[in-house]
Amino acid sequence: MEYRAERLWQLADRLGFTFSKGDEYGLQRWLEDFRLTSRGRDRTIANVLREQQGLHEYDAYLFDFSYREFGAKQSVHQTVFFLHSQRLVLPELCLQPESLLHKMGQLFGWDDIDFVRFPKFSRQYRLTGEDEGYIRHHFTEDVLNYFTLHKGWSVEGIGYYLLVYKKGVLLPPEEVEQLYRRGLEVYALFSNQPC
C-alpha cells in the first residue's frame, strides 16, 4: 500500500489538494449515518485527498474506505468521493445499482422509488429514502438522464453531505481524478451549480 499512498500523494500535489495517510479530518464521525460506513467491521479510512473551495462553497474529499464483512476473511476496499456544502440540501437518500436481490426483495415489499417516465433508470437503480416526495423533487430529468447514461454508481445524501462511489471498487491511482470529476458533476446536478 506504500506505493498507492505515494501515487495518491503525487496526485494531490498535482491537483493542489492536501494529502493525509489516515483520517486526520475525522471523516469516520461525519460519515457514521451513511449506509456505506455502517457495513461490516474493522472500518478504516486511508489516503485522504482534500480540496477546500472557498469558505462557503464546498469541502471535497477522496479516500480509500475498507471494511470486513461479518464472517469474511478478506476486507472490501473502495474509493469514495465525499463532499460537504451548504449549497446542498439533500433528503436522506441512497441510490445503488439494482441487483437481482433487490428485484426479489421488491416481491417482499422492499422499497424502491421508480420513475414511470424513466423506465431504464428504474431498471438500473434502486433508490430509497424516507421522504419520497422530497427525493423525487431532487431527481430532476437532468439527474435521471445522467445516471441512466452513467451506470453502476452509488450515491448517498443527507443534508449538506454527498457520497459517490462504486461499491467494492478500489480505483487505481490514475483513475481517482476521474472520480473527483464525477463527484463534482453529481454535486452540480444536485445543487444546480455549474461544473
From TrEMBL:
User: Origin, by domain of life?
Assistant: Bacteria
By what name is this protein known? Answer: Uncharacterized protein
Species annotation = Neolewinella litorea
